[in-house]
Q: What sequence folds into this?
């Protein structure tokens, strides 16, 4: 059986073993928010996720230019009202959001102001995890970011500190800066899936394991390629970012067919969907929390089906070998 909760980093907050990514919520440019889905659909995805025990929700200030955070704040308040509870402790979720060091937001004050703005949109005074979106060292030194967030941990506005898209060397540096303050680095959010295995080869996975830093796996279903729903027929109606990805082409899908066939075979044998098998494989790697997106209740429910069971060692090895 897969565990239902995971500790972020060393002795950090306890969160659900599967998260919910919300990049698409409010993003019309890349994901078509407001065209093929909208607030009603993502509200249903939120509700279905929480009901299934998926309560760790990842967002960012740049997702929909703040819309994603705002929607989550509204949904949390609505859920609290429906459950007859009120106040900070009534929130059903653990929120993770991110700061993006744009060129004109390079000083320490900008970080504090950005966190304040995110908390306002989320309608919360405290969140579980705050992360830096990219390691743009030229604009914002990791040392400065860690110093500000260490202060925020001590001030009680965030519980834990994370990074995103950091390589092994940068991960060690961030860890060391926080260690000087007696605070552990909780997480590194990176692209990781059966189809994206770079962190296994470039030292990121090994370094995270060595330091006790949790991997948050974004795009764990490779933007839907591992769901099995994309075929030569269905890609004709692609929306948003997928239209720019060569993997979502007739030729790209043909190249992936041998691997996807094995995924579908194992899924059929286990009575699961390909996406549930792909997410379960990630969880089986240890120290990994997948954060798949969900645009509606059905997708959220399907994601939740990755929990409560476990692939065999033989199945894990077969998938690892075929997709390598």
A:
């Amino acid at each position: 059986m897969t565990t239902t909760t995971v500790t972020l980093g060393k002795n950090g907050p306890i969160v659900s073993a599967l998260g919910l990514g919300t990049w698409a919520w409010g993003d019309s440019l890349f994901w078509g928010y407001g065209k093929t889905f909208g607030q009603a659909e993502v509200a249903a995805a939120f509700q279905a996720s929480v009901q299934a025990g998926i309560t760790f929700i990842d967002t960012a200030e740049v997702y929909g230019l703040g819309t994603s955070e705002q929607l989550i704040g509204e949904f949390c308040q609505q859920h609290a009202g429906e459950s007859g509870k009120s106040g900070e402790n009534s929130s059903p979720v653990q929120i993770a959001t991110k700061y993006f060091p744009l060129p004109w937001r390079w000083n320490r004050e900008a970080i504090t102001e950005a966190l304040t703005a995110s908390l306002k949109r989320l309608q919360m005074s405290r969140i579980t995890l705050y992360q830096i979106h990219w390691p743009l060292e030229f604009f914002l030194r990791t040392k400065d970011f860690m110093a500000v967030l260490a202060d925020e941990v001590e001030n009680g506005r965030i519980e834990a500190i994370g990074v995103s898209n950091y390589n092994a060397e940068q991960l060690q540096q961030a860890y060391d800066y926080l260690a000087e303050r007696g605070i552990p680095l909780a997480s590194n959010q990176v692209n990781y899936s059966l189809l994206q295995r770079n962190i296994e080869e470039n030292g990121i996975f090994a370094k995270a394991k060595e330091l006790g830093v949790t991997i948050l796996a974004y795009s764990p279903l490779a933007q839907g390629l591992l769901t099995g729903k994309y075929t030569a027929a269905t890609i004709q109606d692609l929306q948003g970012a997928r239209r720019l990805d060569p993997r979502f082409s007739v030729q790209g899908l043909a190249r992936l067919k041998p691997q996807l066939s094995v995924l579908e075979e194992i899924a059929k044998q286990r009575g699961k969907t390909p996406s549930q098998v792909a997410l379960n494989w990630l969880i089986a790697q240890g120290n990994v929390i997948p954060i798949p997106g969900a645009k509606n209740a059905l997708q959220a429910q399907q994601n939740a089906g990755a929990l409560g069971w476990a692939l065999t060692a033989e199945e894990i090895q077969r998938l690892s070998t075929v997709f390598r």
About this structure: The beta strands are 5-7, 14-16, 19-21, 56-58, 94-99, 127-132, 158-164, 185-191, 214-218, 288-290. The longest helix spans residues 250-270. The chain is about 40% helix and 15% strand. The first strand starts at residue 5 and ends at 7.
